[in-house]
Amino acid sequence: MLKSKPSHLSFTRAQTFSDLFSALFISLWYGKPIHTNFTTQVPKDIQDINMSTLKDMEKAARTQSGIEVTGESQSIDLPVAEDGHIDRPFTTWTAIGIAHSITNTAMGILLTVGTTIPFGGAPLSFFGFILMALVGLSTATSLAELASAIPHPGGQYVWVARLSPASPRRFLSYATAIASWAGAVCTGASVCLTVPQVTLAMVAMTRPDFEYKPWMGFVGYHIVNILTASVSCFERILPQLGSGCLIFTVLSILAIVVSLFAGSTKRVTSEQFFTDYYNISGWPKGVAFLIGINGLNWSFSCLDAVVHIAEEIPQPSKNIPKALMWTIVVGFTTGMLTILALYINITDMETQTDFLTVVYYIFRQNKHAAFGLQFLVLVSTTGAMFGIQTWQSRLAWAFARNRGFPFQSYLRRVVPSPFNTPVWAILWSACWTALLSFVYLASETAFSSLISCGILLQYLSYAVPLVLLLCHGRPNFAHGPFWFSKLGCLANFVTLAWTAVALVVYCFPYYLPVSAAEMNYTSVILVLIGLYIIAYWVLWGSKEFVLPEVEGTS
Length: 554
Hints:
Blueprint lengths: L7 H23 L13 H4 L6 H10 L28 H12 L1 H7 L1 H4 L2 E2 H29 L6 H8 L5 H38 L7 H18 L6 H26 L6 H6 L2 E2 L5 H8 L1 H5 L17 H30 L9 H8 L4 H35 L6 H4 L11 H20 L1 H29 L14 H19 L16 H23 L10
Antiparallel strand pairs: 1-2
Helix pairs in contact: 4-11, 4-15, 4-17, 5-15, 7-15, 7-21, 8-9, 8-20, 9-10, 9-17, 9-19, 9-20, 9-22, 10-17, 10-19, 11-15, 11-17, 16-17, 17-19, 19-20, 20-21, 20-22
């Protein structure tokens, strides 16, 4: 693992290799070679301006029209927080680590086997994964373009403030911030419950008399939330956690893939793998495909998480896009290996309904093998929660700096050494995550629908700045070093199209005929969240919220 404060030599080498691989990937995708040593084409009149700080230089460059940014911005550092100093311990490598630990594509596939098989089996998983990878690539590209132009820990709501017309600017920015933060909190709630459920499923395998009760998951939920929030308060630990989770997850996936192929004595044929559509949902195949793809969609979600460490990484306009692109590359590679290893070796869809039972039957009812491989999934999933705590707290911290939350005088503070993090914002977000656990105690069905809202809120927070960008006109946008004039536009439209599809399909009941226990209340919860945003705006935001200072707004 890289140290939080690497030497100059080690940092240079890491950056060089990252630049080479990133340039190779982007040039293959874009069809043209792209230089790794980016340089901004700055007109002569801007070069002659006498600027006292790099921030002044950036502001002057933004205010000039006709600047052609060919792929490399100046090394302009963002200002540190007003209420305390925040370090920049992240590198491109550790940023990839924290981004991938949250997205966690391959582990997401393993955890959602039970919710994917009933809607299409192997064909759904294979073709659905490719579709979601394309959507994920489009989303990552769209976010990378905006993050490259306007690197800011607020991310989406700051981009909205930059692109929106004057009259609805404050409300749109405010609503986007709440949606973005709420999506992160809902995602955290999902992981906090998944960890104890996976743990107790392992206990149940070793003790057949064990019976799971909701209160057990509730207690485990809070243990995970408290543990990960406490550790996330220490800034110097976060880069090591990110890189450690990345290495552990990749090695674990390789071990799982090899084990599944080595332990299996029966495999499906190629015809069964590609055409044997196993659908017991009650929906027609097409609708079942779109509903069942939800689990795979989560495997390419949470992509904006790395955007919100913009003040904790050098040259964010270059390094954040790299982290986003490499998250997709690593996710697709490990995810495809997992799909192939899993569904080539699942021969009975009726009994092998989750990863634990899949391994159990592949290894001829060997509990130790199932326990061991599931333990790898458990550790990686727990590691994701550290990144999620960082994600949701940085959003809350940035939003509090614009007086978006009550208690903003505390939430905006960066607590000094040994923390060097916005501790109050971490605790604020963790408390909201804790509150959602009571929804689980009241109704598991309602909690499941609440979690489904997490990914929809993410997409909605992406959609608002993308719509504004297209309305503003991409040619008129003062973009950063990461920019694709044509493919970027296509990526924007793909992301928006999938957002519209997901908003409709993910609100459908999961099975037909519909029963109260399996009803999908996602649409109801989305409406309630919308009403909450409006009420919160009327009572607080309209009076207190201050637009972020971004060039191009008025």
